[in-house]
Give the backbone structure.
Amino acid sequence: MPNSYNRKILHVDLTHGKTWVEEPPESFYRTYGGGSAMGMFYILKEVPPGVDAMAPENVLTLFVGPSTGVGISGQSRVVANAKSPLTGAIGDAQAGGFWPAELKFAGFDGIVIRGKSLKPVYLWIRDGKAELRDAAHLWGKVTGEVESVLREELGDKRIQVLQIGPAGEKLDHIACLINMCNRANGRTGMGAVMGSKNLKAVAVRGTHRLKTADPKAITKLGRLGKENAESIPDVRGLGINGTADIVPYQQTTGTLPTRNWNEGQFEGYQQISGETMSATILKERDTCYGCLVRCKRVVETQFEGTAVVPLYGGPEYETVSTMGSYCGVSDLNAVALANQLCNAYGLDTISCGATVAFAMECFENGLITEKDTGGITLKFGNAAALVRMVELIGKREGFGAVLADGSQRAAEHIGKNASDYLITVKGEEAPAHMPHAKKSLSIIYAVNPFGADHQSHEHDPLYEDGSAPLYLKRMAMIGLDKPQPPGSLNEEKVRLTYITQLFFSALDSYSLCQFVWGPSWEVYGPDDTIEMLRAATGWDITLDEFMKVGERRLNMMRAFNAREGIDRRADILPKKLSKPLQGSGPTAGISFDPKENEHWRELYYKMAGWDIHSGNPTQAKLNSLGLDWVKL
Amino acid sequence: MHIEVVLHSAYREKLLPEAHGQATIELAAGSTVGDALAHLSIPPEALCAVNGRVERDRGRLLREGDQVEVFARAGGG
């Protein structure tokens, strides 16, 4: 058996209050790797097609990977999967922190959670043992309080807690899972699924340390990582200013979504940049277990008398954009408080900020008034209104109850032409990267099985003329050796989309951080990634096998959607993108023709070996991936 | 001629901390974008803009008072 797995998966049946341990064979681990591919195995086996995402029959999986907990950067990641209440399609969300490594130290490679408890409970895992405990005293509490209470009552300050906040309890469709009070499995409403099961938290503590097959190789890779983190400027910048380091780049290239994606440049970009954060409210840089990049932020400030405290971390790029430029808000303190509220109440900052921005555009256009919002002047640029609305969403109170299930459902509630202002795919709010300059995003946003996602393939500039020699050398390792003209969209860009999607899909299966392991600008390239997995597991894994695991995950996700009746008809860009972008800058005037998008998507379906008419995997394709047990 | 430089991200370390990433450098007439980057010990593949527009041509001639801005180029995040 490979060294770095525990070979144990924890199963939980909340309906009957039972837990048990499964010890799958090595072939299972090698076929699925971990992360969401492993989660998909159980979801496809157990979740009946057409079931309500909030029903006890939905299965929530939390999986880590073979190298999670190993002493090297970018390995402490957990992936959550379940049917999504936000999209009705498969849900997927990843997070870092210390919880993933702690789960490994506690003796498990993943948790499969089904059923529904009659009353609120939490799951307590310690060194190979698991029990469900009453959580009545935790229900209704924000994440910071819950973490504190659990550490106190379990008598160990080193316990790691993954939990839902009040938003998840109230089944907000944009609710997330939070660990460390500031690391979120943010996307696709996984918090609502956990809330629907009356499961408040998963507390873990472990003392087992992992063995690797080749510790010397891991140490050597660690040294290489240290050198690369210093010498690759884009990685180094991530450590210095966090993910918001890219704000000036986004601004200059006209891809900083502004006022609900009406424009691609924001006049207040400097105030919300990572550089400004570093110079003003940054208290310290934080990290995930064993990672030297230190891209996480911890801020301390206040907004209109309310303190923003270090416990809740600090805003990522996605958050400074969705809460900032999306909403026309340039007050970094307000953004930091909105971030804190999301982490305290357990809300996805992307969907939350984007939904407020959508509501602001409805307000600006008279579709809603102060009568609807409870007196809040929900105009672009109103920082206080943003903060107030985020709090109401977290509490599911007032107009916040309308927005708590995301912008698409809010549009249905508001009626009139509100849907014209949506920036959603499959019902999920798009993240803060615009396809107007990075054109392959127009493909991945449409086809990705769990909605518009910015971490599901490599972005265009890394594969365009002028990219760094190191990045292009790494891209060539996965067969991408023809960098394209900047701003282009063509067959080679469709290849970029599909091939790097498989790579990223594999990263999410082996549960690796996409800032550390990747096909271009990251700390480590494809060759290093394979070397690390070999050293951790002892397997003679190849790049081809790695990509195949990614392909397996992607096909399982599309197969899940197919069973739900979700196919290429749902692979549609927001209609707002077919209108020319307003404002000034290099992307002003750019629009997306749905017909042209359809053309590129068909090419993508062909590359994937799927049925071009439905966009679904064929049974033959599934069989070729060893997924003959998946029936469409 | 005088060129205004604005450096972002890790490239700021090419200047003294108190410069906050901004400086005016002096280059010989006829200097190019590539010359400006070399002057700052910044690799030619760094992403940069001249007067607010992305510029990939390292041979582009600079003019007195031009602004050269250098960025990080991360993917998603």
